[in-house]
Amino acid sequence: MRGRGEPRAVVFDVDGTLVDSTYLHTVAWWEALRQHDRLVPAAELHRAIGLPAQELLTRLLGEADYAELGAAVSAAHGTLYGQWHDRLRAFDRVPELLRTLAGRGWRVVLATSAKGGDLAALRRAIGADDAIDALTSAEDVEHGKPAPEPVRAALDLVGVAPESARFVGDSVWDVYAATAAGVACLGVCTGGTSRAELTEAGAVAVYDSPAALLSALDAGPLRD
């Protein structure tokens, strides 16, 4: 239990949680694989979104194909996804959600596997840097979600204990990572993962969208 005066934090996944990008990544991976004569159903790709690129490709192609094609496919994905940078959009009321939480004393942290130009584009889409206390990216951790390292790294940046934190994500990989780090996870359905899947993975509460989470702040796990 959090003691009086101890800091608290909300850690947010970004792709599919705050920014409407999950299906753009799905299409970019689909096309990148097609360019290298690997035809993977979009549904399988969608279910793997949220994993680090190496794990995503190994899961879909196997170790041998990843060793041969992984770098080239990842580069193609980056080029294809980069075409969408200027059209990325945050979900409805995301800036208001982040600023409201910051105003209530929560330290707001982003934990994303994005880096470089992708990360800059996501931050522009969110448009609420004034509410964000810290950020971890793929360059800050050795192992991405579902490993707990990104969540732990995010909390270390703001000096918050797991029991005083919440994590918000859109995929089962987010839920697994948060749970492994000892942090309660709130799910949102904006990445295309169902309420039932998020709940079964271990989410303590699930909302249709960031806007729905904002509307429910006073009644859920982020209440004061």
From TrEMBL:
Report the superkingdom from the record. Bacteria
Annotated keywords: Hydrolase
Alphabetized GO MF terms: hydrolase activity
Parts of the chain that traverse the membrane: none
Is the Transcription keyword given for this protein? no
Q: Which stretches are annotated as coiled coil?
A: none
Q: Name one Pfam family in it.
A: Hydrolase
UniProt-recorded name of the protein: HAD family hydrolase
